[in-house]
Write a structure and sequence with these properties.
By secondary structure, the chain is an alpha/beta fold. It is built from nine helices and ten strands. The radius of gyration is 20 Å and the shape is globular. 40% of the residues are buried. It comes from Thiobaca trueperi.
């Protein structure tokens, strides 16, 4: 693929085209001004918001995140962070749809416990079934199990989002082979969600063939969140271009950059 083509390589989510393959969260910033500046620097077009922790209009008189992230500019992706059972997750998605005037695109996560924040896979599958029946377009947070990823796709989730490492850990991609297997078998977008710590982690995810990366803590917890957001933007772009270009085969021994045939002496 040529460089010109790579620059016109959109991410398709729920029938809509996005130029940025970086999705970002809105938590853990010191204030809304820093949130807005970091997200601007990231180039992200899809921004995820924890419905249970962020005011989207359900608390009149309090600062509304939509004032600094207007829906006409960003695709707001409400998520079910903080939900530990099927009923709470489903109810949160319904509330988000009501607050956002019929918005059906949601990020589903049903957590197993507060210490690890690993997904409760059985509850996630059950919640996904209910929400798909109700017309939601679900981007789903899950573990890095290729079988579970396939089951979520078969249920009707429009994107599968395996963790790279525990949420907020910054450990990077702990199991690249599982991520690669999910990518190779999926017919829907695959986005790494959770565990990214720095730009090289984001680039690695893209080089594996992931369609995008969602992150929050890696940017918000950096010493300079705005600068890190800019770094992540470049890393995503570089990783995607490297994937499209096709890396050279890894070799055990050296291979001369210049051919030795035809030397003059």
């Amino acid at each position: 693929m040529s460089t010109a083509t790579a620059h016109h390589d959109p991410l398709l989510i729920a029938g809509k085209s996005y130029q940025s393959r970086l999705l970002v969260g809105t938590g853990k910033y010191k204030d809304m001004d820093e949130t807005a500046r970091a997200i601007e620097a990231s180039g992200a077009e899809i921004v995820t918001v924890a419905v249970r922790r962020t005011n989207l209009g359900q608390n009149p008189g309090e600062p509304n995140i939509l004032d600094v992230l207007p829906p006409e500019r960003y695709t707001i992706l409400p998520n079910t962070a903080g939900c530990y059972d099927v009923e709470t997750a489903v109810r949160t998605c319904r509330l988000a749809r009501e607050l956002l005037d019929g918005h059906n695109l949601v990020k589903l996560e049903v957590l197993g416990d507060e210490k690890t924040l690993f997904p409760d896979v059985m509850a996630t599958l059950k919640a996904a079934e209910i929400l798909v029946r109700e017309g939601f377009e679900i981007m789903v947070y899950t573990n890095d199990d290729p079988i579970v990823a396939r089951q979520l796709e078969e249920i009707g989730c429009i994107a599968v989002m395996p963790l790279a490492a525990p949420i907020g850990s910054g450990l990077g991609i702990r199991n690249p082979l599982n991520i690669l297997t999910i990518v190779e078998n999926a017919k829907v977008p695959v986005l790494v969600d959770a565990g990214v710590g720095t730009a090289s982690d984001a680039s690695e995810a893209m080089e594996l063939g992931c369609d995008g990366v969602l992150m929050n803590t890696a940017i918000a917890a950096a010493k300079n969140p705005v600068l890190m957001a800019s770094a992540m933007r470049k890393a995503i772009e570089a990783g995607r271009e490297a994937f499209l270009a096709g890396r050279m085969p890894a070799k055990r021994f050296a291979s001369a950059s210049s051919p030795i045939e035809g030397l003059f002496f």
